[in-house]
Amino acid sequence: MGHGELSGRESRQVAVAAATLGPWRTATAVGAVVGGAALGVDVITGHWSTDILAGPVGLGLFFFFLVGTVGGRLRGGGDRRLRRWADAHPWQSALPAAGALLVLNTVALWVLSSMGLFGALFTSLLPAGLLLVVAGVVGSVKAARRS
């Protein structure tokens, strides 16, 4: 291992640490507003079922992680070393948020809807993949514009 290289374990730890740079309070507010609005639309339109909470919770989680991750990529401040690492590795720095969304959305769909575990897992792959792509592209474009 040469100078400046990280092992796989160290790289994962730095990626998780870089994920903490986002505006998570704002992300919580946005996720709550989007989830509440989606629940309100479901209640008003009469989509009454045992699954009424699954969709709004999934939307709220997606927007929570989207605002937190992309906002962390775009705003300044925080630890300069973590920010430099995240700028150099935009796709790796997006993985913790996408993984957390995959797990939390799977659990929410499994518990709050009539889906089984594997159905919930496969349904959660799309929003997690979309989050990964958006955050990775934003990080890549930011790094390309900087150089």
Characterise this structure.
The protein has about 150 residues and is mostly helical. It has one domain. The chain is about 80% helix and about 0% strand. It is built from six helices and no strands. The radius of gyration is 17 Å and the shape is elongated. About 30% of the residues are buried. The mean pLDDT is about 85.
List the helices and strands and how they pair.
Blueprint: H1 8-19, H2 24-45, H3 54-74, H4 80-88, H5 90-112, H6 117-146
Helix pairs in contact: 1-4, 1-5, 2-3, 3-5, 3-6, 4-5, 5-6
Task: Name some characteristics of this structure.
147 residues, mainly alpha, 6 helices, 80% helix, 0% strand
Short recap of the structure:
The chain has six helices and no strands. It has 147 residues and is mainly α.
Order of helices and strands: HHHHHH
Separation, N- and C-terminal Cα atoms: 26 Å
Unreliable parts? none
Question: Into which percent range does the helicity of residues fall?
Answer: over 70%
Separate helix tally: 6
